[in-house]
Amino acid sequence: MKKIAFIFAIALTIVFTSCKKDRFDDNAPKPENMEELTVPSSFDWKTTKDIQLTLSAPSNGIVEVTNPQNIAYQKAFLTVGQAYTMKLSLPTYEKNIKIRFMGQEVLIELTGSIINHSF
Fold first, then answer.
1. Nearest in space to 99 (alpha carbons), one of 111, 109, 87
2. What's the CA angle centered on 109, arms 97 and 88, to 5 degrees?
3. Of 50, 60, 52, 49, whose CA–CA distance to 117 is shortest?
4. Hey, is 17 helix, strand or coil?
5. pLDDT tens digit string along 40-74?
6. Domain-by-domain residue ranges, the chain?
7. Which one of 54, 66, 74, 94 is CB 3.0 to 4.6 Å from 90, fit for a cystine?
8. Which residues are within 8 A (CB) of 98 and not within 5 positions of it... i.e. 6 or more apart?
9. Cα 66 from Cα 99, distance rounded (Å)
10. How confident is the model at residue 2 (pLDDT cuts 50, 70, 90)?
11. Close Cβ partners of 60 (under 8 Å, ≥ 6 residues apart)
12. Which stretch of DSSP H or E encloses residue 108?
């Protein structure tokens, strides 16, 4: 019984001595509305980016534009000799897209807002 009481006393001592108050002073006032929020002028609020994708193919067929995880953004029918232009609104975190056409799969890096590709 004395051993259990001793262990209990040690455990309580450890618990109470390990609890400490935070030493960080959070004196910065928290904004209550958007007008009070301080944001750098270089911050971009957009969460999407617009891409103009122009595709051409040597034969008729369906093209599918997806993200690298194969989630489809858009499908279109390509006609021989006629360029097809689509406008995509993609999340800003997206760095690549995949284009599938007649068994071909191409990974395209999103380096600009206008992309041209021929199969």
1. 109
2. 45
3. 52
4. helix
5. 888 878 888 899 999 999 999 999 999 999 999 99
6. 49-118
7. 94
8. 65, 66, 67, 68, 70, 105, 106, 107, 108
9. 6
10. confident
11. 77, 78, 79, 80
12. strand 104-109
- pTM (predicted TM-score): 0.60
Characterize 11-34 residue by residue with b for buried, 16 or more Cβ atoms within 10 angstroms of its Cβ, and e for exposed: eeeeeeeeeeeeeeeeeeeeeeee
Nearest to 99, CA basis, from 112, 117, 81:
117
CATH classification number, 49-118, choose in 2.30.30, 2.60.40, 3.30.1330, 1.10.1060: 2.60.40
CB 55 within 8 A of CB 99: yes
CA–CA distance, 107 with 95 (Å, rounded to integer): 10
% pLDDT > 90, the chain: 39
Length of the chain: 119
